[in-house]
Amino acid sequence: MFEPDVLLPEQVRALQGKRLTSEQRLLYAVLEEAVHSFRTYVWAGRPREKQIFRDAEEWFESADTSWFFSFINVCDALGLDPDYVRRAMRNWKAAQLQSRAQLKVPHVDTHLNRHLPHI
Fold it and tell me: What is the Cα–Cα distance from 75 to 51, expressed in whole angstroms?
């Protein structure tokens, strides 16, 4: 299920309390999988996992409406604001980058330290 910072609470409630058509359930599953892939593989190291993340990110950012499963068409069919969802995904990624940067410890090259004068 979506995290609270991805969709507005009223959007989630509206989707959960509404009888979705079979097409809408399929589109909801597509959106849910894209969110999952984006969040799961944001720090991927393996090429295939990096590609899954890039594909999800490109899908969220795309303005293409020419195919049924485009991000904008999926949001429209579900009554979601695509710009809000995009902002939420960008904000989540930025927070991940910030927290990861804060966790990085500067590397100390002990080989070089052996050659420094002792004080």
Answer: 23
